[in-house]
Amino acid sequence: MHIRIRPNRGWTALSPHALWAHRELLALLIWRDLRVRYAQTALGAAWAVLQPLSMMLLFSVVFSRVSGLHSGRVPYPLFAYAALLPWTFFSNATTHAAHSLVASAHILTKVYFPRVLVPLATVLSCLVDLLLGLVMLAPLMAFYRAAPGWHLLWLPLAVALATIVALGAGIGIAAVNVKYRDVRFALPFAIQLWLFASPVFYSTEQLPARWQWVAALNPVAAPIEAFRASLLGLPIDIRVLCISGGATILLLAAAAMTFLRVERSFADIV
Amino acid sequence: MDPIISVRGLGKQYRLATRRAAYATLRESIMRRLRGLGRDSTADGERTFWALRDVSVDVAPGEVVGVIGRNGAGKSTLLKVLSRITDPTEGEVDLYGRVGCLLEVGTGFHAELTGRDNVFLSGAVLGMRREEIRRKFDDIVGFAGVAAFLDTPVKYYSSGMTMRLAFSVAAHLDPEILIIDEVLAVGDAAFQQKCLGKMGDAARQGRTILFVSHNMAAVRGLCRRVLLLDGGRIVMDGDVDACISRYLADASESGANQVDLSMTHSRQGHGELRFHRITLCATGDRAIVPAGRRIELQLDMRVETAVSDVELSVAVDTAEGVRVCEWSSGATLGRIARLEPGAYRLNCGVDQNILSPGRYVLAPIARTGRRILDYVPGAMPFEIAWSGDGVHDGRDDPSGLVRVGSTWTPPESAPGI
Hints:
Number of domains of chain B: 2
Structural class of chain A: mainly alpha
Number of strands of chain A: 1
Helix content of chain B: 10-25%
Number of domains of chain A: 1
Oligomer: heterodimer
Largest sheet of chain A: none
Mean pLDDT of chain B: 83
Shape of chain A: globular
Structural class of chain B: alpha+beta
Shape of chain B: globular
Largest interface: A-B, 38 and 50 residues
Order of helices and strands of chain A: EHHHHHHHHHHH
CATH architecture of the largest domain in chain B: 3-Layer(aba) Sandwich
Number of helices of chain B: 10
Strand content of chain B: 25-35%
Strand content of chain A: under 5%
Largest sheet of chain B: 7 strands, mixed
Distance between the termini of chain B: 66 Å
Number of strands of chain B: 20
Helix content of chain A: over 70%
Radius of gyration of chain B: 24 Å
CATH topology of the largest domain in chain B: Rossmann fold
């Protein structure tokens, strides 16, 4: 085994080879995040389901009953819940990941392993919550007598897409947070705004046609629409998917660059 | 034999500004960019310094090398670069083998997790494979002696138990190259002995060890070669005794009665609180106290985030690194209930100064319970001067670390003995 240490590490901090070599540590970190998150909570992992469920109830009352927003042939609660699953995952994963590097500073300044494992593990641990939320969807759909169709086969793809977007946002913001603690104040606020800019309680096709592409610039739009399409068989606009997917690639590139910049001097500034 | 560690022209530069403000805010950074428009960005007086410069050294497999030097000499920076925690600014290092680094005891431990979980987590963080941990699990638990509490969260452990388990995990790490910082400094004497014993074992098994310490006895006991660092450069490389004598001679030169600690890198702890200055009062401008005279210290510190149940203390080590005593605030103040963020100053007076004449170093420590907030080993060298105050009348160099007065009766004739 040969390790060479040089001033400029370049891309090696994100090399798939190094990540693969540390896969066991990644698994342990995911498991630690899950254990610690639900340690000393009375309801434990039930929180993973309660969050989107209570939001669904709130949205159903406010947007469906009060403001009369339509969801077509799909009952509004289902329409909202199918979107709240990826949204809750995205907002939780991003928030937890954003603080993960700083919270692990005491480890990262004492021992070396690819630091990207820390936000990566946090995002992946939130995936478990998403799966629990998906399980809850089954009784909901049974209640509304909505059967899933062959579209369900697209679900793994939708989950993967949501994970990639959360990774981009989570890793990028975590890196910024190392240098600028403004993130602590800005992030909760930004996430709230982001919710309204995302097609969660409405769908992109309900927007005026000339604004739809603007809404699609949001990287989270694609996974949300993809979830709805695969779970409820709703039509999906390929253009929205492409624009949002493109935005995701930009997000990932920006996150990787920010992360690499911070990674080099992490131990000196944290 | 080919070297297992090869360091060529290694240098590490720090910007002073970024280290003073532990982290910036976005506004400051934007303002700096705006001000910097149209002129050289380094022109706004940004000061830099080299914590490490032109360091070149080869270490052969199986060598046990001690790294010594005063605070700020670059020891910790060297270890951090070699363990890849921070990148060098220039130069290159080749490491031919698996590297294990122990910069503190308990890296990766999480209070909410059980002892069993922590063994796996900490082991993995330090670089062990799961299979390897499973194989050594019984040994690790046996060495620590906590078998009965494996399924209890570590937060309910005593500090001694946590330390033993944490060290036991680290002790069972067996990489080809072992990098060890002063992990032994915060523990009781028995624990330190155990740690040193384990490191001796590792050395005998032919591992390559790089060992930073202020404890000259430990360095003498373990190492066959010593690197003496000063001002970021290797000033001496080779014979253990020669390097140690030179180090001890240098250590006595510095004698300011006030030391700025705000910039020093050689510290441990979580950092909610940072010592900024230590002053030895009423001694003139040099850190010399006559034997038997009252010692008065002033500590300046900054609290970054509010902390509660704080205990402050100052440890006294000999120049060789043997701990003589620890003066703790606990006796007079109890635990300090709460310290809000801000700057603080406090004084510590030692009436019973029984230290023997000689050279010592002071090390301030802040703790809450078992958690170390800040600890600056070797922060301030000082000297106890012989005063002829009567405690040891008739002897110029009393032996031993402390002077305890005693009364004697004159010899009487006792023929029956």
